Amino acid sequence: MKNITTIAATLTMTVGANSCSRQHPLKDLDAQRSTVVTEPGIPWQLQFTVRTLDGTPFAGASLYGRPAVLWFWAPDRPEAGKQAALIQASAARNSDITFVGIACSRPRAVTEFDGQHQLTFTQIVDPAATIAMRFGIAAQPAYVFITVRAQITTVKKPLGQRDLRTRLIRLATD
């Protein structure tokens, strides 16, 4: 019985050692899948293409690598006019920052509002809120601040002049 136990233990150690020491080379395909990309890519939130209010194609990826503000708004919100004036003035003072208005409404209402407030920065109509959902935005007004390094900060409330100015200074110097 002692010999059987010794043989069983020897076999277990030999088989175990061989299976642990066996090399399993990775196939090329597996190696490519596990490659770590060290360069930052365009965030998925910016990977969209739409048309602006005037019909021009707009790629969200074009915002990558430069400071930007996305203003999510709806023309039927009571604060929309005040917020529009604030954003328009901020866009005029900060030409180094890209401003984009994203209206969660129908094109006709946005066109009327845009004409009344004479907005000079890019406007996008997003009636289904598909762009807003990318940033976790369910209500307007809301803002998305994108740094040169593509860091995204979402603010889900109206901003006053002082708070917006502070965020724009931080965005321009980041």
TrEMBL record:
Pfam families: AhpC-TSA
Residues passing through the membrane, by range: none
Alkyl hydroperoxide reductase subunit C/ Thiol specific antioxidant domain segment(s): 47-152
MF annotations from Gene Ontology: antioxidant activity; oxidoreductase activity
Family matches, as SUPFAM superfamilies: Thioredoxin-like
Protein name: Redoxin domain-containing protein
